[in-house]
Amino acid sequence: MEIIKQRFNTKRTSSGSLTFLEGKRDIPFEVRRIYYIYDLAQGAHRGFHAHKALHQYLICVHGNCEILLDDGTQRETVLLNNPGEGLYVGPGVWREMYAFSPGAVLLVLASEFYDEDDYIRDYDRFLNYARAKVH
Ligand code: TYD
What we know:
It contains 1 helix and 12 strands; from the N terminus they run E-E-E-E-E-E-E-E-E-E-E-E-H. It is mainly beta.
C-alpha cells in the first residue's frame, strides 16, 4: 500500500509558522467538506470504517495522533505530528485513529458531502469489498 504523506507550503519566521493549501494546486480533489475531531477522550479510538468513493486528507493541526491504514491486504501505521503535512486516504482504505495527544485536533478535508451510504463500517464487509475489487 502506498502511503502518501504530503508536505504543504509553510512559512516559518521567528514570530511563528503559517501553512497554506491551495485548491487544485496542493489538493488533487475539490474540497466539498471540512471537519475536525477534537476534545478527544483519553485512549479514544475512532474511525473503524472505509469509504467507497471519498478522498480525504488528514492533518493533525495540533498535537499528534496515529492513523492505521488497511487496504485489505496490508496494514500500515502512520504518525501525524506535524501541522505542515497531510496524509492522503483514498477510497477502499479502512482507517482507525488513536493515540491522540492531549488537546490534539485532527482536521479532515473531504471530496464529498457527508453521505452515510459511502461508509463501510463493518470490517468483514470491508474485507469482502476490498477482495472483490482486487479480482
Ligand atoms: P464518524 O465518521 O463515525 O467519525 P469518526 O470517523 O471520527 O469515528 O462520524 C461520527 C458521527 O458524526 C456519525 O454519526 C456521523 C456524523 N457525521 C456527520 O454528520 N457529518 C460528517 O461530515 C461526519 C464526518 C460525521
